[in-house]
Design brief:
This is Lipoprotein. Keywords: Signal. It comes from Streptomyces siamensis. The structure is a single chain. This protein is mainly alpha-helical. It has a domain of about 120 residues. Helices cover about 70% and strands about 0% of the residues. Helix 3 runs antiparallel to helix 4, helix 3 runs antiparallel to helix 8 and helix 4 packs antiparallel against helix 7. The radius of gyration is 49 Å and the shape is elongated.
């Protein structure tokens, strides 16, 4: 029996609606349940930029000018201390000894020997300081290094001078060490000249 055209149209319309609805539901479900992938790079915590290591102050190499200045200062101090030792030795040990003022019966012998003892202690201390100064200059340090033992041997001689004991040997020993220091300084470009210390310097050491 032929189907009326109106019923056929209605049936066709309903079918389309059902198909469209199912498709929409399926699409909606897919959209709802779908997960959006997030790139790992977007969620990663930015790492701190690498720090550029700063040069260590202790690792810096001294400039040639700074090294030259240090060596010059070392020589200046060496010359000053050795010069004072030489001046004290000549003025209050060697010169009065040569003049015979250390001999028994000499006028003012006691006072001269006391002054010589002070000068000997002063000279020893200044020579020790000069040795330390010389360490700032390689050439000078090498030149005076062999004299360290001789300088140390002067330590107990001032007491002998004060007592008037073995004055000839003591005076000669001081004079010899001073001359050796002068020669060593001159060979390293640090010429030493006698510088007579003041009274306050002498008693202060």
């Amino acid at each position: 029996m032929p189907v009326p055209i109106r019923r056929l149209v209605v049936a066709l319309t309903l079918s389309c609606a059902l198909i469209a609805g199912g498709t929409a539901c399926t699409s909606g479900a897919n959209a709802k349940g779908a997960k959006v992938a997030i790139p790992a790079a977007a969620t990663a915590t930015p790492s701190a930029p690498a720090k550029t290591p700063s040069p260590s102050a202790s690792g810096k190499t001294p400039s040639p000018s700074a090294t030259a200045q240090k060596q010059k200062l070392a020589k200046t101090r060496f010359v000053a201390n050795a010069g004072l030792a030489a001046g004290a030795t000549y003025q209050w040990i060697y010169k009065p000894w040569k003049a015979g003022k250390f001999k028994k019966g000499a006028h003012g012998r006691k006072f001269t020997l006391i002054k010589a003892g002070l000068a000997g202690a002063f000279a020893y201390n200044r020579l020790k300081a000069a040795l330390k100064n010389a360490q700032g200059d390689p050439t000078l340090s090498k030149a005076v290094a062999p004299l360290a033992a001789g300088i140390e041997s002067l330590k107990n001689l001032p007491a002998k001078l004060r007592k008037g004991d073995s004055t000839d040997a003591v005076a000669n020993t001081f004079n010899d060490i001073i001359n050796q220091v002068k020669d060593a300084g001159k060979s390293a470009g640090a010429e030493v000249k006698n510088q007579v210390p003041s009274g306050s310097q002498l008693t202060g050491g």
